[in-house]
């Protein structure tokens, strides 16, 4: 369901290590799996306000964007230790043509964005032959 190969995954890992991308350092990890006629993508987004999550699909590319803010942002607090990453988080996933992205549903549960995408089922059909 995901368009991927060993080469793409290796390149993704190398890019994440070399450039230390925000997606990797901020914990936007995902699991993708299929159950019956539904394809699921679970993306870890702990500490994100669900109202600020932006999900788009354009030409079979699913993009998820959000921003994790520090609790002290906008307050008169002095940061002593900041180990938890903050800032923008984004993740792109290339989807197969067999998914019905028009019926994609999303929910946010306990820091995990759960995307449910129905698998498009091709229906057999009769084709009439016309004589010219």
Automatic annotation (TrEMBL):
<dbReference type="Pfam" id="PF00011">
    <property type="entry name" value="HSP20"/>
</dbReference>
<dbReference type="InterPro" id="IPR031107">
    <property type="entry name" value="Small_HSP"/>
</dbReference>
<protein>
    <submittedName>
        <fullName>HSP20 family protein</fullName>
    </submittedName>
</protein>
<feature type="domain" description="SHSP">
    <location>
        <begin position="21"/>
        <end position="132"/>
    </location>
</feature>
<dbReference type="InterPro" id="IPR008978">
    <property type="entry name" value="HSP20-like_chaperone"/>
</dbReference>
<comment type="similarity">
    <text>Belongs to the small heat shock protein (HSP20) family.</text>
</comment>
<dbReference type="InterPro" id="IPR002068">
    <property type="entry name" value="A-crystallin/Hsp20_dom"/>
</dbReference>
């Amino acid at each position: 369901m995901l368009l991927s190969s060993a080469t793409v995954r290796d390149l993704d890992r190398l890019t994440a290590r070399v450039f230390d991308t925000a997606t990797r350092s901020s914990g936007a990890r995902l699991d993708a799996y299929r159950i019956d006629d539904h394809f699921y993508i679970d993306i870890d987004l702990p500490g994100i306000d669900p109202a600020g999550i932006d999900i788009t699909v354009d030409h079979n590319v699913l993009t998820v964007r959000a921003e994790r803010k520090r609790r002290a942002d906008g307050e008169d607090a002095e940061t002593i230790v900041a180990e938890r990453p903050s800032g923008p988080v984004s993740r792109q996933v290339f989807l197969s043509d067999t998914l019905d992205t028009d019926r994609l549903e999303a929910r946010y549960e306990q820091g995990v964005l759960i995307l449910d995408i129905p698998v498009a089922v091709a229906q057999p059909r009769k084709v009439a032959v016309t004589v010219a």
